[in-house]
Every structure is written in C-alpha cells, then in structure tokens.
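4.2 Preliminary Data

To establish feasibility before requesting continued support, the project team ran the inverse folding procedure on a target of 159 residues. The structure was first converted into the token representation described in Section 3, and no sequence information of any kind was made available to the design step. The complete token record follows.
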C-alpha cells in the first residue's frame, strides 16, 4: 500500500484519539505535569533523524518550524483554563474540535501535494517537526496560563 495513504490513515486515527483525550481531560483537574509531559514524550520521535532518509535540509527545517508555530496560534487561542471546585480545569471549547479537524485536513492535503515532490522519509521528518513545533509553543502557553491561575488560586503573589 502507498506510504502516503498509510501515514494519512495513521494521522486521522491520531487526530480522533487526540479529540477523545482532550474531551476527557476537560472533565478532570489539570496539573503542570499533565501540560508539560506530552511534548517531552513526543521528543523521543526525534530519533527518526538518526536514519539518513528522514534528515531535512535547513530550508525544510525552517518551513516546518514556521508552519508549526503558526498552527500553534490557533491552539493557544482556544486553550483556556478556569478555576472550579478549588481546582484548575481546561475549559471546553467547541472551536477546538473544528480547529483540530481543520488542521488535520490541511495536513492531509499538504502531505498529498508535497508527496509528489518530496521523498516520503523527508516528508515524514518535516511533518514530525511541524507537529512538534506546534505542540511546544502551545504547551508552553498553556503552562504559563495554568501557573497564573495556580498562583491566584493558592494566593501566591505574582512577580
């Protein structure tokens, strides 16, 4: 089977999984650890760059990082916290689901178009870097927002 099709199916399944995880997470209090650990765990995927077929040119790195950071803006804008029952919860956002699905569709379209001109290994490396460059700024922004509420909740003076 075509690698682009297989990886696209995998991306759709991961997107669906992310939606369910996000909806479930909104029902439980959050913590700094829950916010910061996903990018740490995801960073192990960078081991793919040990294999020469996944290595990127400086321009491909720049493109993937810039697009990922631009996509992160949408996620940052839809991730808000609230204090409920003396705990901090992630607010549910209807827009988040549409944004996540939209980003997934855009990613699939980009992958289909780019797969005709970029090797599948390099393309995989670019999309991993794009996802990582999207998640890291998003999670850092979430952590900063969380810590602001945490300090407010526990009466810690803001410096």
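Position-by-position output of the design step:
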């Amino acid at each position: 089977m075509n690698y682009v099709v297989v990886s696209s199916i995998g991306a759709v399944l991961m997107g669906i999984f992310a939606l369910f995880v996000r909806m479930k997470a909104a029902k439980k209090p959050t913590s700094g650890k829950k916010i910061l650990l996903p990018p740490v765990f995801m960073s192990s995927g960078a081991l793919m760059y040990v294999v020469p077929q996944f290595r990127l040119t400086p321009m491909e790195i720049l493109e993937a990082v810039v697009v990922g950071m631009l996509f992160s803006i949408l996620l940052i804008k839809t991730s808000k916290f609230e204090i409920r029952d003396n705990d901090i919860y992630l607010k549910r956002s209807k827009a988040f689901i549409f944004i996540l699905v939209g980003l997934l569709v855009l990613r699939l379209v980009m992958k289909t178009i780019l797969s005709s001109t970029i090797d599948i290994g390099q393309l995989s490396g670019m999309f991993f870097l794009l996802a990582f460059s999207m998640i890291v700024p998003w999670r850092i922004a979430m952590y900063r927002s969380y810590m602001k509420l945490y300090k407010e909740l526990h009466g810690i003076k803001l410096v």
